[in-house]
Protein backbone atom coordinates (compact mmCIF):
# COMPACT_ATOMS: atom_id res chain seq x y z
CA UNK A 1 0.00 0.00 0.00
CA UNK A 2 2.87 2.37 0.77
CA UNK A 3 5.06 2.07 -2.30
CA UNK A 4 4.14 3.04 -5.82
CA UNK A 5 3.76 -0.21 -7.83
CA UNK A 6 6.59 -0.59 -10.35
CA UNK A 7 5.52 0.00 -13.95
CA UNK A 8 4.44 -3.48 -15.25
CA UNK A 9 5.09 -2.81 -18.94
CA UNK A 10 8.33 -1.27 -20.24
CA UNK A 11 6.36 0.64 -22.92
CA UNK A 12 3.83 2.20 -20.57
CA UNK A 13 4.08 5.89 -19.69
CA UNK A 14 6.86 6.73 -17.21
CA UNK A 15 5.74 6.98 -13.59
CA UNK A 16 4.60 10.50 -12.72
CA UNK A 17 7.30 12.53 -10.99
CA UNK A 18 7.27 12.36 -7.21
CA UNK A 19 5.30 15.35 -5.87
CA UNK A 20 7.53 17.85 -4.07
CA UNK A 21 8.21 17.24 -0.39
CA UNK A 22 5.93 19.29 1.87
CA UNK A 23 7.33 22.08 4.03
CA UNK A 24 7.71 20.94 7.60
CA UNK A 25 7.56 23.09 10.76
CA UNK A 26 5.65 26.00 9.16
CA UNK A 27 2.49 27.49 10.72
CA UNK A 28 0.32 25.59 8.19
CA UNK A 29 2.10 22.40 9.24
CA UNK A 30 1.50 23.17 12.94
CA UNK A 31 -2.21 23.62 12.21
CA UNK A 32 -2.56 20.32 10.37
CA UNK A 33 0.59 18.18 10.03
CA UNK A 34 -1.29 15.07 8.90
CA UNK A 35 -1.14 15.61 5.08
CA UNK A 36 2.64 16.15 5.34
CA UNK A 37 2.99 13.00 7.46
CA UNK A 38 0.95 11.02 4.91
CA UNK A 39 3.40 12.21 2.23
CA UNK A 40 6.40 11.20 4.32
CA UNK A 41 4.97 7.75 5.13
CA UNK A 42 4.39 7.19 1.42
CA UNK A 43 7.51 8.71 -0.15
CA UNK A 44 10.21 9.14 2.50
CA UNK A 45 9.30 7.03 5.55
CA UNK A 46 12.68 7.61 7.19
CA UNK A 47 13.44 11.19 6.26
CA UNK A 48 16.45 13.33 7.12
CA UNK A 49 15.49 16.90 7.88
CA UNK A 50 16.90 20.06 9.40
CA UNK A 51 14.91 21.11 12.41
CA UNK A 52 14.14 24.77 13.18
CA UNK A 53 16.96 24.64 15.78
CA UNK A 54 19.43 23.73 13.01
CA UNK A 55 19.95 20.17 14.28
CA UNK A 56 19.70 17.47 11.61
CA UNK A 57 17.61 14.43 12.51
CA UNK A 58 15.85 11.42 10.99
CA UNK A 59 12.04 11.38 11.16
CA UNK A 60 10.49 7.90 11.34
CA UNK A 61 6.83 7.97 10.23
CA UNK A 62 5.54 4.42 9.52
CA UNK A 63 3.89 2.49 12.38
CA UNK A 64 5.99 -0.70 12.05
CA UNK A 65 9.29 1.23 11.87
CA UNK A 66 8.22 3.55 14.69
CA UNK A 67 7.32 0.70 17.04
CA UNK A 68 10.58 -1.07 16.25
CA UNK A 69 12.66 2.08 16.73
CA UNK A 70 11.02 2.87 20.10
CA UNK A 71 12.09 -0.54 21.40
CA UNK A 72 15.53 -0.66 19.71
CA UNK A 73 18.23 -0.64 22.41
CA UNK A 74 20.79 0.52 19.84
CA UNK A 75 18.98 3.85 19.89
CA UNK A 76 20.13 5.51 23.09
CA UNK A 77 18.28 8.16 25.08
CA UNK A 78 21.58 9.51 26.38
CA UNK A 79 22.47 12.77 24.55
CA UNK A 80 26.17 11.99 25.02
CA UNK A 81 25.74 9.67 22.01
CA UNK A 82 24.90 12.61 19.72
CA UNK A 83 27.65 13.08 17.15
CA UNK A 84 27.58 16.85 17.45
CA UNK A 85 27.51 18.57 20.80
CA UNK A 86 24.03 20.07 20.16
CA UNK A 87 22.84 18.83 23.51
CA UNK A 88 25.56 20.90 25.12
CA UNK A 89 23.95 23.98 23.52
CA UNK A 90 20.59 22.98 24.96
CA UNK A 91 19.11 22.02 21.59
CA UNK A 92 18.15 18.41 22.18
CA UNK A 93 17.03 18.18 25.77
CA UNK A 94 14.75 19.85 28.25
CA UNK A 95 15.71 23.51 28.67
CA UNK A 96 17.65 24.23 31.83
CA UNK A 97 18.64 20.64 32.50
CA UNK A 98 22.21 20.79 31.30
CA UNK A 99 23.93 20.41 34.64
CA UNK A 100 25.12 16.82 34.93
CA UNK A 101 23.26 16.08 38.16
CA UNK A 102 19.99 17.22 36.59
CA UNK A 103 20.35 14.96 33.58
CA UNK A 104 19.82 11.69 35.43
CA UNK A 105 16.14 11.26 34.66
CA UNK A 106 14.25 8.46 32.95
CA UNK A 107 14.07 10.07 29.52
CA UNK A 108 17.84 10.62 29.33
CA UNK A 109 19.22 7.27 30.37
CA UNK A 110 19.39 3.68 29.11
CA UNK A 111 19.29 0.27 30.80
CA UNK A 112 20.68 -0.84 33.20
CA UNK A 113 20.58 2.59 34.97
CA UNK A 114 17.11 3.21 33.56
CA UNK A 115 15.87 -0.18 34.79
CA UNK A 116 17.06 0.57 38.34
CA UNK A 117 15.55 4.08 38.50
CA UNK A 118 12.29 3.03 36.84
CA UNK A 119 11.89 0.14 39.28
CA UNK A 120 12.42 2.48 42.21
CA UNK A 121 9.98 5.14 41.00
CA UNK A 122 7.41 2.47 40.07
CA UNK A 123 7.36 1.41 43.72
CA UNK A 124 6.16 4.89 44.70
CA UNK A 125 4.07 5.82 41.64
CA UNK A 126 1.76 2.82 41.56
CA UNK A 127 -1.57 2.40 39.71
CA UNK A 128 -3.11 1.98 43.19
CA UNK A 129 -1.84 5.39 44.33
CA UNK A 130 -3.31 6.89 41.14
CA UNK A 131 -6.67 5.13 41.68
CA UNK A 132 -6.82 6.48 45.25
CA UNK A 133 -6.32 9.94 43.79
CA UNK A 134 -9.52 9.77 41.68
CA UNK A 135 -11.79 11.68 44.12
CA UNK A 136 -9.27 14.55 44.28
CA UNK A 137 -9.07 14.77 40.47
CA UNK A 138 -12.88 14.91 40.35
CA UNK A 139 -12.92 17.63 43.02
CA UNK A 140 -10.31 19.72 41.16
CA UNK A 141 -12.21 19.30 37.88
CA UNK A 142 -15.47 20.46 39.49
CA UNK A 143 -13.79 23.43 41.18
CA UNK A 144 -12.31 24.61 37.88
CA UNK A 145 -15.66 24.33 36.09
CA UNK A 146 -17.33 26.16 39.02
CA UNK A 147 -14.87 28.99 38.39
CA UNK A 148 -16.22 29.77 34.91
CA UNK A 149 -19.63 28.08 34.64
CA UNK A 150 -21.74 31.22 35.28
CA UNK A 151 -20.07 33.20 32.47
CA UNK A 152 -21.48 31.07 29.66
CA UNK A 153 -18.07 31.25 27.96
CA UNK A 154 -14.49 30.24 28.71
CA UNK A 155 -11.08 29.60 27.25
CA UNK A 156 -10.83 25.92 28.05
CA UNK A 157 -7.04 25.85 27.70
CA UNK A 158 -6.28 28.58 30.25
CA UNK A 159 -9.21 28.08 32.60
CA UNK A 160 -9.41 24.29 32.56
CA UNK A 161 -6.93 22.10 30.65
CA UNK A 162 -3.87 24.03 31.90
CA UNK A 163 -4.56 24.32 35.66
CA UNK A 164 -6.01 20.81 36.15
CA UNK A 165 -2.81 18.77 35.58
CA UNK A 166 -0.55 21.24 37.35
CA UNK A 167 -2.66 21.23 40.54
CA UNK A 168 -3.11 17.44 40.24
CA UNK A 169 0.60 16.68 39.96
CA UNK A 170 1.46 19.20 42.71
CA UNK A 171 -1.03 17.49 45.05
CA UNK A 172 0.27 14.07 44.15
CA UNK A 173 3.91 15.08 44.70
CA UNK A 174 3.04 16.75 48.01
CA UNK A 175 3.64 20.43 47.08
CA UNK A 176 1.75 22.41 49.78
CA UNK A 177 -1.39 24.14 48.45
CA UNK A 178 -0.04 27.62 49.31
CA UNK A 179 2.91 27.07 46.92
CA UNK A 180 0.94 25.60 44.03
CA UNK A 181 0.21 28.95 42.35
CA UNK A 182 3.96 29.50 41.99
CA UNK A 183 4.07 26.22 40.07
CA UNK A 184 1.17 27.40 37.96
CA UNK A 185 3.18 30.54 37.03
CA UNK A 186 6.41 28.64 36.27
CA UNK A 187 4.52 26.05 34.25
CA UNK A 188 2.69 28.85 32.41
CA UNK A 189 6.03 30.30 31.38
CA UNK A 190 7.18 26.90 30.13
CA UNK A 191 4.05 26.29 28.08
CA UNK A 192 3.83 29.83 26.66
CA UNK A 193 7.42 29.89 25.51
CA UNK A 194 8.06 26.18 24.96
CA UNK A 195 8.56 26.63 21.20
CA UNK A 196 10.21 30.03 21.38
CA UNK A 197 13.03 31.79 23.18
CA UNK A 198 14.39 29.60 25.93
CA UNK A 199 15.70 32.19 28.42
CA UNK A 200 12.42 32.57 30.36
CA UNK A 201 11.77 28.84 30.20
CA UNK A 202 15.21 28.03 31.58
CA UNK A 203 14.63 30.50 34.46
CA UNK A 204 11.28 28.86 35.29
CA UNK A 205 12.80 25.39 35.14
CA UNK A 206 15.56 26.55 37.47
CA UNK A 207 13.07 27.94 39.99
CA UNK A 208 11.01 24.77 39.86
CA UNK A 209 14.04 22.58 40.36
CA UNK A 210 15.35 24.72 43.20
CA UNK A 211 11.96 24.48 44.92
CA UNK A 212 11.76 20.71 44.44
CA UNK A 213 15.28 20.16 45.80
CA UNK A 214 14.36 22.10 48.93
CA UNK A 215 11.04 20.26 49.27
CA UNK A 216 12.80 16.90 49.04
CA UNK A 217 15.18 17.98 51.74
CA UNK A 218 12.23 18.94 53.99
CA UNK A 219 10.34 15.69 53.26
CA UNK A 220 13.39 13.67 54.19
CA UNK A 221 13.23 15.22 57.64
CA UNK A 222 9.45 15.10 57.88
CA UNK A 223 7.97 12.52 55.45
CA UNK A 224 4.27 12.30 54.63
CA UNK A 225 2.03 10.10 52.48
CA UNK A 226 2.79 11.96 49.23
CA UNK A 227 4.73 10.79 46.18
CA UNK A 228 7.92 12.69 47.03
CA UNK A 229 8.05 10.98 50.45
CA UNK A 230 7.36 7.71 48.60
CA UNK A 231 10.29 8.40 46.24
CA UNK A 232 12.60 9.04 49.20
CA UNK A 233 11.39 5.88 50.98
CA UNK A 234 11.46 3.63 47.89
CA UNK A 235 14.19 1.05 48.07
CA UNK A 236 15.18 -1.85 45.92
CA UNK A 237 17.51 -4.50 47.35
CA UNK A 238 18.60 -1.95 49.93
CA UNK A 239 19.20 0.74 47.27
CA UNK A 240 17.60 4.19 47.55
CA UNK A 241 17.34 7.18 45.22
CA UNK A 242 19.92 9.83 46.02
CA UNK A 243 18.57 13.31 46.75
CA UNK A 244 19.62 14.44 43.25
CA UNK A 245 17.94 11.45 41.66
CA UNK A 246 14.74 12.06 43.63
CA UNK A 247 14.77 15.75 42.57
CA UNK A 248 15.37 14.80 38.92
CA UNK A 249 12.55 12.25 39.18
CA UNK A 250 10.07 14.71 40.69
CA UNK A 251 10.99 17.18 37.97
CA UNK A 252 10.53 14.70 35.11
CA UNK A 253 7.16 13.64 36.54
CA UNK A 254 6.11 17.27 36.46
CA UNK A 255 7.61 17.98 33.09
CA UNK A 256 6.38 14.80 31.37
CA UNK A 257 2.98 14.87 33.04
CA UNK A 258 2.00 18.47 32.62
CA UNK A 259 1.87 19.79 29.04
CA UNK A 260 0.98 16.30 27.76
CA UNK A 261 -2.19 16.27 29.87
CA UNK A 262 -3.05 19.90 29.00
CA UNK A 263 -2.99 18.88 25.35
CA UNK A 264 -4.85 15.62 25.90
CA UNK A 265 -7.76 17.59 27.37
CA UNK A 266 -7.44 20.42 24.80
CA UNK A 267 -7.03 18.29 21.65
CA UNK A 268 -9.59 15.76 22.92
CA UNK A 269 -12.26 18.39 23.62
CA UNK A 270 -11.58 20.06 20.28
CA UNK A 271 -11.93 16.75 18.42
CA UNK A 272 -15.25 16.05 20.18
CA UNK A 273 -16.59 19.55 19.43
CA UNK A 274 -15.75 19.18 15.75
CA UNK A 275 -17.26 15.64 15.50
CA UNK A 276 -20.81 16.21 16.77
CA UNK A 277 -22.07 12.67 16.07
CA UNK A 278 -19.24 11.07 18.02
CA UNK A 279 -19.70 13.55 20.84
CA UNK A 280 -23.48 12.89 20.97
CA UNK A 281 -22.83 9.14 21.14
CA UNK A 282 -20.43 9.67 24.05
CA UNK A 283 -22.86 11.98 25.85
CA UNK A 284 -25.66 9.41 25.51
CA UNK A 285 -23.54 6.57 26.84
CA UNK A 286 -22.34 8.69 29.80
CA UNK A 287 -25.93 9.71 30.58
CA UNK A 288 -26.81 5.99 30.65
CA UNK A 289 -24.05 5.43 33.23
CA UNK A 290 -21.84 3.50 30.80
CA UNK A 291 -18.12 4.38 30.83
CA UNK A 292 -17.06 1.85 28.17
CA UNK A 293 -17.19 4.38 25.32
CA UNK A 294 -15.28 6.94 27.43
CA UNK A 295 -12.48 4.41 27.90
CA UNK A 296 -12.15 3.34 24.24
CA UNK A 297 -12.88 6.94 23.20
CA UNK A 298 -9.98 8.42 25.17
CA UNK A 299 -7.57 5.96 23.53
CA UNK A 300 -8.99 6.92 20.13
CA UNK A 301 -8.55 10.63 20.88
CA UNK A 302 -4.90 9.89 21.73
CA UNK A 303 -4.43 8.02 18.47
CA UNK A 304 -6.34 10.52 16.33
CA UNK A 305 -4.68 13.73 17.58
CA UNK A 306 -2.50 12.91 20.59
CA UNK A 307 -0.49 15.41 22.65
CA UNK A 308 2.97 13.95 21.92
CA UNK A 309 3.58 14.45 18.22
CA UNK A 310 7.20 13.24 18.26
CA UNK A 311 8.75 10.92 20.83
CA UNK A 312 11.75 12.39 22.66
CA UNK A 313 15.29 12.29 21.26
CA UNK A 314 17.09 9.05 20.49
CA UNK A 315 20.66 8.68 19.17
CA UNK A 316 22.14 5.80 17.15
CA UNK A 317 24.95 4.16 19.15
CA UNK A 318 26.15 2.21 16.08
CA UNK A 319 25.39 2.16 12.33
CA UNK A 320 21.91 0.67 11.85
CA UNK A 321 19.01 0.45 9.39
CA UNK A 322 15.44 1.57 9.97
CA UNK A 323 12.85 0.93 7.24
CA UNK A 324 15.64 0.20 4.74
CA UNK A 325 17.44 3.47 5.49
CA UNK A 326 21.03 3.50 6.76
CA UNK A 327 21.52 5.57 9.91
CA UNK A 328 25.05 6.51 10.98
CA UNK A 329 26.30 6.18 14.55
CA UNK A 330 25.66 9.43 16.43
CA UNK A 331 22.67 10.47 14.28
CA UNK A 332 19.57 11.73 16.14
CA UNK A 333 16.33 9.84 15.42
CA UNK A 334 12.87 11.26 16.11
CA UNK A 335 9.93 8.86 16.01
CA UNK A 336 6.83 10.68 14.75
CA UNK A 337 4.07 9.14 16.87
CA UNK A 338 1.38 11.28 15.21
CA UNK A 339 2.35 9.92 11.76
CA UNK A 340 2.62 6.30 12.92
CA UNK A 341 -0.81 6.46 14.55
CA UNK A 342 -2.41 7.45 11.22
CA UNK A 343 -0.66 4.72 9.21
CA UNK A 344 -3.21 2.96 6.95
CA UNK A 345 -1.01 -0.18 7.08
CA UNK A 346 -1.89 -0.48 10.76
CA UNK A 347 -5.23 1.29 11.29
CA UNK A 348 -8.38 0.91 9.24
CA UNK A 349 -9.58 4.34 8.00
CA UNK A 350 -6.93 6.06 10.11
CA UNK A 351 -8.14 9.61 9.41
CA UNK A 352 -11.56 8.80 10.86
CA UNK A 353 -12.30 9.51 14.52
CA UNK A 354 -14.14 6.43 15.81
CA UNK A 355 -14.60 6.38 19.58
CA UNK A 356 -15.69 2.74 19.44
CA UNK A 357 -12.39 1.63 17.81
CA UNK A 358 -11.10 -1.45 19.64
CA UNK A 359 -8.11 -2.60 17.55
CA UNK A 360 -6.21 0.44 18.74
CA UNK A 361 -2.66 -0.29 19.85
CA UNK A 362 -1.62 3.32 19.29
CA UNK A 363 1.82 4.70 20.13
CA UNK A 364 0.54 7.82 21.89
CA UNK A 365 2.16 6.70 25.17
CA UNK A 366 5.27 5.38 23.43
CA UNK A 367 6.44 1.76 23.46
CA UNK A 368 9.24 -0.31 25.01
CA UNK A 369 11.13 0.43 28.23
CA UNK A 370 10.32 4.17 28.10
CA UNK A 371 6.55 3.54 27.80
CA UNK A 372 4.76 6.35 29.64
CA UNK A 373 5.00 5.85 33.38
CA UNK A 374 2.12 8.27 33.95
CA UNK A 375 -0.40 6.62 31.59
CA UNK A 376 -2.80 5.61 34.44
CA UNK A 377 -2.78 9.21 35.76
CA UNK A 378 -3.23 10.65 32.25
CA UNK A 379 -6.20 8.32 31.66
CA UNK A 380 -7.74 9.28 34.99
CA UNK A 381 -7.36 13.02 34.33
CA UNK A 382 -8.44 12.80 30.68
CA UNK A 383 -11.52 10.69 31.36
CA UNK A 384 -12.58 12.77 34.37
CA UNK A 385 -12.09 16.08 32.53
CA UNK A 386 -13.97 15.11 29.36
CA UNK A 387 -16.82 13.28 31.10
CA UNK A 388 -17.37 16.12 33.60
CA UNK A 389 -17.30 18.82 30.90
CA UNK A 390 -19.88 16.99 28.79
CA UNK A 391 -22.08 16.20 31.79
CA UNK A 392 -22.05 19.66 33.38
CA UNK A 393 -21.99 21.77 30.20
CA UNK A 394 -23.98 19.58 27.81
CA UNK A 395 -24.39 22.20 25.04
CA UNK A 396 -20.69 23.18 24.97
CA UNK A 397 -19.79 24.67 21.56
CA UNK A 398 -16.72 26.18 19.91
CA UNK A 399 -17.00 29.98 20.09
CA UNK A 400 -14.93 30.55 16.92
CA UNK A 401 -14.45 28.98 13.54
CA UNK A 402 -11.91 26.10 13.75
CA UNK A 403 -9.73 27.97 11.20
CA UNK A 404 -9.27 30.79 13.69
CA UNK A 405 -7.68 28.52 16.29
CA UNK A 406 -3.90 28.65 16.63
CA UNK A 407 -1.72 25.61 17.37
CA UNK A 408 1.55 25.78 19.24
CA UNK A 409 4.56 25.36 16.98
CA UNK A 410 6.74 23.28 19.35
CA UNK A 411 8.66 20.26 18.14
CA UNK A 412 7.59 17.45 20.47
CA UNK A 413 4.11 18.47 21.64
CA UNK A 414 0.94 19.18 19.69
CA UNK A 415 -1.64 21.45 21.31
CA UNK A 416 -3.88 24.50 20.96
CA UNK A 417 -2.97 27.95 22.25
CA UNK A 418 -6.58 28.71 23.19
CA UNK A 419 -9.93 26.92 23.00
CA UNK A 420 -12.76 29.49 23.30
CA UNK A 421 -16.15 27.90 23.98
CA UNK A 422 -19.70 28.99 24.81
CA UNK A 423 -22.41 27.12 26.73
CA UNK A 424 -25.63 27.75 28.65
CA UNK A 425 -24.72 28.37 32.29
CA UNK A 426 -26.08 25.46 34.35
CA UNK A 427 -29.43 26.25 36.04
CA UNK A 428 -30.60 28.73 33.37
C1 LIG B 1 -1.92 12.24 27.85
C2 LIG B 1 -0.91 12.41 28.59
C3 LIG B 1 0.42 11.76 28.32
C4 LIG B 1 0.97 11.32 27.14
C5 LIG B 1 0.34 11.33 25.76
C6 LIG B 1 2.29 10.84 27.45
C7 LIG B 1 3.16 10.30 26.53
C8 LIG B 1 4.39 9.79 26.81
C9 LIG B 1 5.29 9.21 25.83
C10 LIG B 1 5.02 9.15 24.35
C11 LIG B 1 6.39 8.80 26.49
C12 LIG B 1 7.60 8.10 25.87
C13 LIG B 1 8.57 9.09 25.30
C14 LIG B 1 9.69 8.44 24.53
O1 LIG B 1 9.84 7.20 24.50
O2 LIG B 1 10.42 9.20 23.91
C15 LIG B 1 6.21 9.11 27.90
C16 LIG B 1 7.13 8.84 28.87
C17 LIG B 1 6.96 9.25 30.17
N1 LIG B 1 5.84 9.82 30.72
FE1 LIG B 1 4.13 10.28 29.80
N2 LIG B 1 2.51 11.00 28.79
C18 LIG B 1 1.40 11.54 29.35
C19 LIG B 1 1.21 11.85 30.67
C20 LIG B 1 2.10 11.60 31.67
C21 LIG B 1 1.89 11.84 33.08
C22 LIG B 1 0.59 12.40 33.68
C23 LIG B 1 3.04 11.52 33.71
C24 LIG B 1 3.40 11.59 35.17
C25 LIG B 1 2.91 12.36 36.04
C26 LIG B 1 3.98 11.04 32.72
C27 LIG B 1 5.25 10.62 32.99
C28 LIG B 1 6.10 10.06 32.05
C29 LIG B 1 7.45 9.62 32.38
C30 LIG B 1 8.13 9.70 33.74
C31 LIG B 1 8.00 9.11 31.18
C32 LIG B 1 9.38 8.54 31.01
C33 LIG B 1 9.32 7.04 31.21
C34 LIG B 1 10.65 6.36 30.98
O3 LIG B 1 11.53 6.90 30.32
O4 LIG B 1 10.80 5.24 31.50
N3 LIG B 1 3.37 11.09 31.49
N4 LIG B 1 4.97 9.71 28.06
UniProtKB/TrEMBL annotation:
One Pfam family matching this protein: p450
Positions of the UniProt region annotated as Disordered: 76-95
Organism domain of life: Bacteria
SUPFAM superfamilies linked to this entry: Cytochrome P450
Residues forming coiled coils: none
Transmembrane segment boundaries: none
Protein name: Cytochrome P450 hydroxylase
Source organism of this protein record: Streptomyces lasiicapitis
Amino acid sequence: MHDQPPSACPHSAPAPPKPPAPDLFTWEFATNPYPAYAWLREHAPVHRTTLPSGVEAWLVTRYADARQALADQRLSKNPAHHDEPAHAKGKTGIPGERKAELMTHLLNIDPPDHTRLRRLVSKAFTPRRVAEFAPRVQELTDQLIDGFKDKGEADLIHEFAFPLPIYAICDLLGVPREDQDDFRDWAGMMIRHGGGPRGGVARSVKKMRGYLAELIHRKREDPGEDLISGLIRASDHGEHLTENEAAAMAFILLFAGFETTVNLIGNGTYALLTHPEQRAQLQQSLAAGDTGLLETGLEELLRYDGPVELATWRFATEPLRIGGQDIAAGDPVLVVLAAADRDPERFERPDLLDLTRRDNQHLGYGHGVHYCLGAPLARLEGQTALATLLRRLPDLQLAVDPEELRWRGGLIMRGLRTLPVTFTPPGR
